[in-house]
Design brief:
It is found in: Membrane. The chain is an all-alpha fold and 189 residues long. It has one domain. It contains 6 helices and no strands.
Length: 189
Amino acid sequence: MKPNQFQISSPQYFPLILGGFLRTRFIVLISLILPYLVVERSLATKFVKDYENQPRKFISILALVFGQIFATIVSASAILTIIGILEIVAFAFVVNAAASMMFAVLNHRNQQLILKINSFRVNDGRYTLAKKFQIEENLRVLIAFKYVLIIVGLVGALILITFVLGYVNFLPSGMNIVDHLLIELLVYM
């Protein structure tokens, strides 16, 4: 048995364990929102010709099912102390950093596409109004994501640094309740 592992000797601990599971699951689901949005916009870029006309319900259903299963497995693993919170925070940071890089590539790609479309003549066969509007919508969404991604990245880096400092016992042991509340609020951001 690991040193921080505990045994459930009474059913009175069930609400505490269930609450911890749901809380961890919520944190994992929230940390996956930005990568899912970037993946959705990348599919909108890939299928730019007919993204609005062709219903692709499988994209949202697949993302929802994958996210729920992944969050449940990670939360159960955390509750059973198979993985720790530091690993979860580090994984979320890496996934969101990868989403940030993918975001930059998508933004550049969509800007190149709109420049290319604007250079076509209207009677050219490669120009369609639907394609132009879809690319412009992609750019608007990506511009809105940019600021959110920057803030979430900075907060994520701060959370990861805080957890690493706590993990290596660098934070002072005499922290008061205000410090604990600030760190907890930082985690929920």
